[in-house]
Amino acid sequence: MGGESCGTTRLAAAPGKKLPVCAPPPASAASVPSNYKLRSQGSVAGSASWPQEVVPSVGRGLWLSLEGGDPQRLTSPHPRCATDHNSDNTTAMLQEWLGAVGKDYHSVVWKVQEEPSSYPDELGPKHWSDKRYENLMRLKQEALVYAREQRADYILFVDTDSILTNNQTLKFLMAQNKSVVAPMLDSQTFYSNFWCGITPQGYYRRTADYFPTKNRQRVGCFSVPMVYATFLIDLRKETARLAFYPPHPNYTWAFDDIIVFAYSCQAAGAEVHVCNQERFGYINVPLKAHQTLEDDHANFVHLMLEAMVDGPPMQRSSHISLLPKPLTKMGFDEIFLINLVRRPDRRQRMLASLRELEIAPRVVDAVDGSTLNSSDIKVLGVDLLPGYYDPFSGRTLTKGEVGCFLSHYNIWKEVRVSQGLERSVVFEDDVRFEAAFPARLRRLMEELEGAQQDWDLIYLGRKQVNAEDEVPVKGVRNLVVAGYSYWTLAYAISHRGAQKLLAAEPLSKMLPVDEFLPIMYDKHPNEDYKRHFAPRDLLVFSAHPLLVYPTHYAGDSNWLSDTETSTIWDDDAKKTDWTGSQKTLRDSRGGAGHLRSTARDEL
Questions:
Q1: Where in the numbering of this chain does the Glycosyl transferase family domain appear (predicted)?
Q2: If 0-12 CB within 10 Å is exposed, 13-18 middle and 19+ buried, where does residue 526 land?
Q3: In terms of DSSP bridges, do strands 281-283 and 180-183 run parallel, antiparallel, or are they unpaired?
Q4: In this structure, what DSSP letter does residue 488 have?
Q5: pLDDT confidence of 7, banded at 50, 70, 90?
Q6: Predicted pLDDT at 567
Q7: Are 230 and 193 in contact (CB under 8 A)?
């Protein structure tokens, strides 16, 4: 992994460097020789009047973006690809892809430089040295000159850390009739591919417009001082003075390709726009200079998982060969995934997410509370804990909560009776994974074992109810003694922990499962509830920071709850909804949100 091609992935000085995207490929290296060019007759995308456009893609470490998308879906007549300084299989992927789709383009220009695999002044594959910046600017300038020589109408620059999922992006950008225009790209954080402000010295300037634009609270095409990663230049307009290299004679700002180009646009009087009316795709958050290609891979996987939260999985190109990912249980004996059969969309998203994380789950069909009538519940031996009422709405238990409790209860029973299930993980189906989830969980468990710390249950995701600090576990980073918490989103459970939970005989005195657990580790604030259960000696800890969060919260457009939106457990006619409950709301203290707002994230 690593190398230069059409884009970049960037580092500190300027926000978000990029690795341009060229084509999503691995393929028969022998099928595409160096300096490969192709011309074909006929229309592109079924339209004989398609404008002449060049799509340059400079790629180092390009294989990641090729896994996540296919530039061919944009339908353009002039792809131009360059790759260099690679230490991964970028070249092979591009060759395979070009061998498969080159015939569909008017012409293809292919440049490859396999050696050297690094720059003499770089600290590592994610370090943006001056020589790397210069090489990238030269390649982009070469592509721009080529487009002008070909009398192209447009040139679309797509860096390889950009994944375009909207196949109408190119047509949309052309229709805006702008000199330089970019589609706003989403990411795992508040990072995107534009700046709303720039200082007289060429540095990033925070403005009041950035977050409303990034969050689509204001929608449209907006004039901005800088776009990068993916943008279209209309070569029919007054853009002849635009250049990537060499920098403008009066240029004194940082030696950085996106800042050099922003200055060029400013000096040429070319207005720059970013558009956010649609969801066009995603951009990977840039890494720091010391980080590795493995870190880059984990970052990209996280981007793919985030894309699946509100949309379909990224579609890999059908023109590249990828080996199936090896799936593991991360050192646990079993990975349980609880899902209602009538929620196939959640099942598919979770299975796709776990597959990207290389985790092998076992799907457990959840008990559907909506199918239980009052008689069914009595037959199961379920009875309400005397005096239980929801602390916010005043209602009693819902059938959805009964189904949720029984789903977890059935897993605890299996853990207790099965041989060899000493350590297991339980996921519900609305999990949003934090970056590098498997590696972080493995490290946590290794340190826990090294510290010889006994445990029964570890929250991987939860809502901390009280604001007080929780005691860190000595010898184990990122682990605290859990206080009163909501949610059973994801947790690790030991064989002994399952035994303790079942020994409490909770079905005959049921309350929501996320209220039951704090009782069992003696952190529930209601003394009346606690006196029904003894002993309360469950050893419970929590990852800190958390490793997972919910995909959605109450009030979000795609929020859905089968526990809060239900009927009362012993009354088939009395319906409930979430409006009285605070459990499903985003944590007002900021501890239950997956995004972290920092200045760097903006860049």
A1: 333-516
A2: middle
A3: unpaired
A4: E
A5: very low
A6: 60
A7: yes
Contact indicator for 244, 261 with CB cutoff of 8 Å:
yes
**Contact in structure between 231 and 242 (CB atoms under 8 Å):** no
Count of Cβ atoms closer than 10 Å to residue 577 Cβ: 14
Pairing of strands 194-195, 281-283: unpaired
Q: Are 254 and 13 in contact (CB under 8 A)?
A: yes
Q: Identity (one letter) of the amino acid at 16? A: G
Query: What Å distances lie between residue 258 and 145, 192, 210, 245, 246, CA to CA?
Result: 18, 13, 18, 11, 13
pLDDT in tens, 52-97: 777 776 655 554 555 555 555 665 555 556 544 444 567 788 788 7
Neighbouring CB atoms inside 10 A of 393's CB total 17
Q: Which domains does the chain have, with CATH numbers?
A: 29-283 (3.90.550.10), 334-580 (3.90.550)
What confidence tens digit (pLDDT) does each residue in 501-553 have?
999 999 999 999 999 999 999 999 999 999 999 999 999 999 999 999 999 87
Asked if 393 and 473 touch (Cβ cutoff 8 Å), the reply is no
Q: How far apart are CA 227 and CA 237, in angstroms?
A: 18
Residue 321 near residue 95, CB atoms below 8 Å: no
Would you state the pLDDT for residue 51?
75
